[in-house]
Specification:
6 helices, oxidoreductase activity, acting on NAD(P)H as acceptor, two-stranded antiparallel sheet, Flavodoxin_fold, alpha/beta, binds flavin mononucleotide, oxidoreductase
């Protein structure tokens, strides 16, 4: 049975178009999946505490309660074999809610380590991952895209390499544009899911 983790980083939470699309497709195409849904956009994670920052940057500091929230989020991630991240573009990049999740999940000596060449090496197992990206602009050509290369690099840092990006562009240009973006994303995502998880 597929264990799916469906995360929203939109201020609209589970009402975001990306989230509703992902939920509907999982229900139709992977009906026996055990799906865990989280709204980290509508109900933001707490800011990083000084204790957590110290724990990550002090030799021997990683034990203790400062990493408890981080641990919960990593365990939740480890438990899935299908990860779906639903996120808007905010100012060319990831929204603060997603950055906060990343700062909790990308933790040295837990989700990644550093090798003798000072490269970061992921400690989590790879898993099929979709990043559904919603933006006001059409995807190509109008502005820089820092989100895609950043998410590729971050997911690879923890060991997640099998990643597909699905873009819903022009989402602020009226109902017709939204419907077009949804149709295209629906087709791309259902083809990707149907071709095997
Ligand atoms: C603070 C903020 C910054 C945004 N920055 C961008 C941007 O840089 N590029 C873009 O195309 N859209 C930008 N948008 C528009 C959103 O990406 C767009 O409305 C998206 O569809 C929202 O998705 P959601 O409903 O899932 O939150 C921004 C929206 C907000 C609220």
């Amino acid at each position: 049975m597929t264990r799916a983790l469906l995360l929203s980083f939109s201020p609209h939470g589970k009402a975001a178009q990306t989230f509703k699309l992902a939920r509907a497709l999982l229900r139709d195409l992977v009906p026996d999946a055990a799906v865990t849904e989280r709204d980290y956009g509508g109900q933001a994670l707490p800011p990083l505490s000084r204790e957590y920052a110290n724990a990550l940057t002090t030799p021997g500091g990683l034990s203790g309660s400062a990493t408890a929230r981080s641990e919960e989020l990593i365990v939740e991630l480890e438990a899935c074999d299908l990860l779906v991240i639903c996120t808007p573009v905010h100012n060319f990049s990831v929204p603060a809610a997603l950055k906060s999740w990343i700062d909790h999940v990308v933790r040295i000596q837990r989700s990644f380590t550093v090798n003798a060449q000072f490269e970061k090496v992921g400690l989590l197992k790879d898993r099929r991952t979709f990043v559904l990206v919603s933006s006001g602009n059409a995807r190509k050509g109008h502005e820089p895209d820092f989100l895609t290369p950043y998410m590729h690099a971050i997911l690879a840092t923890v060991g997640i390499h099998t990643v597909d990006f699905i873009y819903l562009g022009a989402m602020v240009r009226g109902a017709e544009a939204v419907n077009r973006a949804l149709e295209l994303a629906h087709r791309q995502l259902s083809e990707a899911i149907s071709s095997g998880l």
